[in-house]
Amino acid sequence: GAGVSQSPSNKVTEKGKDVELRCDPISGHTALYWYRQSLGQGLEFLIYFQGNSAPDKSGLPSDRFSAERTGGSVSTLTIQRTQQEDSAVYLCASSLVEGKNIQYFGAGTRLSVL
Amino acid sequence: RKEVEQDPGPFNVPEGATVAFNCTYSNSASQSFFWYRQDCRKEPKLLMSVYSSGNEDGRFTAQLNRASQYISLLIRDSKLSDSATYLCVVIPSGGYQKVTFGIGTKLQVIP
Question: Measuring CA to CA, which of A60, A107, A109, B54 is 20 to 30 A from A82?
Fold first, then answer.
C-alpha cells in the first residue's frame, strides 16, 4: 500500500507496562508527525521529525514518552510505565515538506490502558 | 489565545442547507491553510487547501481573510454524508513546518 501504515491498530495493556507503537510513512516523505487524540478531543501534537534535523519533542507530555525515527523512515513511539490517562488514539502523519506540506495520516493505534 | 480556534459545535443542519464554519488563527506569519475532514473513529483526511483568492470544489468553498486572520469553509446543499468533524490546519512560514490543528467543528446533517 502507498499510505501511512500504523501498527498495531489496537493495543490493550496493563497500567505500568511499556508499549511501542510503529509508524511506516509514505515512501519519500521526509516529515513525520505523531499526534494523540483522546475521545471527543482535538489532535494533540507530540513530536515532529524532519530529515536529519533534531526532532521537535515539545509536545511530549512527560519523560515516559519517547520516539525514534530510524534511517529517516520508520518511527516508533514508546510509552513507558503506561498510565490510564495515556489511553487514546495515537496518529502518525507524514508529508513532503516541500510544496504544500499536506499531511497524510495513518489509521492510528487505539491504546487502552487498564 | 490559542494558536488556532474553532467552534466545536455541534452544528445540526437539515439536508440541503448551507452551513459555514470559521477558524481563527493567531500567528500573522501563517502561510498555508487547509481544511481536513475526520469521520467518527477515523483518521483526518485532507478536504481542501485554502488559497488567498478563495477556492471552490463542488459544494465546498474555502476562503482566507488575512486581515482578520481567519479561514472559512462553506458547504452548500448539505448531504447526510457530510456529517463529520471539520478541522482547520495552519502552517507558519519559515523553515520549520510545525502544523497546528484546530479542535474541529462537528457537523451533523439531519434528514
Answer: A107
Q: What parts of chain B have a pLDDT lower than 70?
A: 1, 93-97
Contact: A105, B45; criterion CB under 8 Å? yes
Residue A74 burial (CB count, 10 A): 14
Assess contact for B86 and B107: CB atoms under 8 A.
yes
* Cα R_g (chain A), whole angstroms: 13
Is residue A1 scored above 60 in pLDDT? Answer: no
User: What pLDDT was estimated at residue B9?
Assistant: 92
In chain B, DSSP assigns E strands to 4-6, 11-14, 19-25, 30-38, 45-50, 55-57, 60-65, 70-75, 84-92, 100-101, 105-110
pLDDT above 70: percentage of residues in chain B: 95
